[in-house]
Amino acid sequence: MAKVILEVRCNEYAMRDANPHVPWSPQEIADDAVSCQDAGASIFHFHARDASTGEPSSDAAVYGATIGRIREQTDLIIHPTLGATSVADPMERVAHIPVLAKDPATRPDLAPLDLASTNVDPYLPGKGFLTEDLVYLNSVAGIRSQAAAIRAAGVRPGMALWNVGSARLLGALLDTGDLEEPAYVEVLLSDLLLACHPATLDGLDAMLRFLPKGRQLEWVCVIPGGNVLELIPAILERGGHIALGLGDQPWSELGTPRNHEVVARAARLVSAAGAEIATPAEARDMLGLP
User: Fold this and answer.
1) Which residues are CB-neighbours of 1 under 8 A, at least 6 positions away?
2) Is there a domain that residue 278 lies in?
3) Distance from C-alpha of 184 to C-alpha of 83, rounded to nearest angstrom
4) pLDDT tens-place string over residues 221-265
């Protein structure tokens, strides 16, 4: 069995009402990264946030301060966000990546590309829609422009697949040369976000059937609003990797854990399934990163 990559999704847009341990400031995020590497993480994904309010930040200086601290203390693969729904214009969304890449101390390893335009309003049975006007727009032209800007900065895109259409678009962009192999691919499943396939074995298998064939892919399962731990045996059987963290849900079933505690739980389940966790260096080799 191939070694398993564990990616931390440390904060996303999560607030602290359900879990007070969501990291916001550059130092909090960096401290979180150190603990997560010790627990078995290979990749660390974060959103820059206002240290006081938790509001999303697009400030390259905040990203740089965070990456610099993480790089000083870990050898994790660093995967900052592009802002997703908080930044509408695709080129504004990616603008901080070339700035960060000018300095080796703040250059990210990966930057995400969302390969879909979707409704992202959360829905809870019995409560209804929590919002009803969140549309995440990603035109093909915008995706290709972002991919070009990321690659020109010496950073690798990591693709987020929201549905089967995203998987088909991944194949097209590999065909056109807009994306390169080995490709790092996040397969999103969610019961909370109706744009995604459900967070079930059927939902996972439906997505995997449409991944482009004959390509070098390393795919990781992400479940916004849900518990990916329950699918770990099935994910490993199918050759996948794991992404999880307080950015996806507060993990109330574990109390109010910190990210490293959730990572440690996943690492134990991976080991119990007879697989080994990839170190950051081993994950770099798997993804073709320098």
Assistant:
1) 236, 274, 275, 276
2) yes
3) 19
4) 999 999 999 999 999 999 999 999 999 999 999 999 999 999 999
* Number of CB atoms found within 10 A of residue 212's CB: 18
Beta bridge partners of 43: 7, 77
Please check whether residue 46 lies inside any domain of the structure. yes
Asked if residue 1 belongs to a domain, the reply is no
User: Where is average pLDDT lowest: 75-89, 200-214, 271-285?
Assistant: 75-89
- The residue-averaged pLDDT of 201-219 equals 97
pLDDT digit string (tens) for 160-190?
Answer: 999 999 999 999 999 999 999 999 999 999 9
Tell me the residue range of the domain where 123 lies: 6-287
| CATH code (residue 225) | 3.20.20.70
CB 198 within 8 A of CB 190: yes
- 143 CB-near residues (< 8 Å, 6+ apart): 90, 113, 114, 115, 169, 173, 178
pTM, to two decimals: 0.96
Number of domains observed in the structure of the chain: 1
